[in-house]
Amino acid sequence: MSLDQVLARRRSVREFRDEPVGDEAIAKLLWAAQGPSDPEGHRTAPSAGATYPLELYAVTAHGVFHYDPRHERIARVDASDIRPALESAAGGQSAVGSAPLLVVFAAVQARTSAKYGKRAERYVSLEAGHAAQNVLLEATALGLGAVPVGAFDDDALARALPLPREQRPIYMVAVGHPRG
Predict the structure, then answer these.
(1) What does the domain layout of the chain look like in residue ranges?
(2) Which residues pair with 107 in a beta bridge?
(3) Which of 15, 29, 148, 167 could form a disulfide with 106 if both were Cys (CB 3.0 to 4.6 A apart)?
(4) Along the 180 residues of the chain, how does pLDDT read in single tens digits?
């Protein structure tokens, strides 16, 4: 599918079949968001000053997995299915609870604020948007549906995720096989 076709077909999908997203597709989605795009360490989404504040997590029925773009690895950090807790944190949005995959974007703002001070908050948010759009486009290219989720209780989401203290969740994308 050409980029023009992917852009024309991308729509927010909020209803998913009860079918897991395969490991290969998860790897492609995470790579699209923050994967290495050249030997120098640049990534697929732009980052202010190449500070790369984002940390990505894939949440499935089988647990929570952290994506390490430097080594292109995905490692389980928790074996629990926390999707119901994330749905609750997102105000009961059914797309969050029914999605077989949630891509959660967390940020270490200090990476960017060390270089850009108060502007870091804006730059980190912009980067999350760039990376999330890449996930949405890759999902479309893979024949999957997806919807970005920005409405959630920050503290409840942070409590539900096994994140290091310096990371704060800032965005989610629910992904799955579209129903119908």
Answers:
(1) 3-176
(2) 54, 168
(3) 167
(4) 899 999 999 999 999 999 999 999 999 999 999 999 999 989 999 999 999 999 999 999 999 999 999 999 999 999 999 999 999 999 999 999 999 999 999 999 999 999 999 999 999 999 999 999 999 999 999 999 999 999 999 999 999 999 999 999 999 999 999 997
CB 65 within 8 A of CB 75: yes
For 31, residues 6+ apart whose C-beta sits below 8 A from its C-beta are: 44, 69, 72
Superfamily for 3-176?
NADH Oxidase (3.40.109.10)
Query: Are 140 and 115 contacting, i.e. CB atoms less than 8 angstroms apart?
Result: no
pTM, 2 dp: 0.96
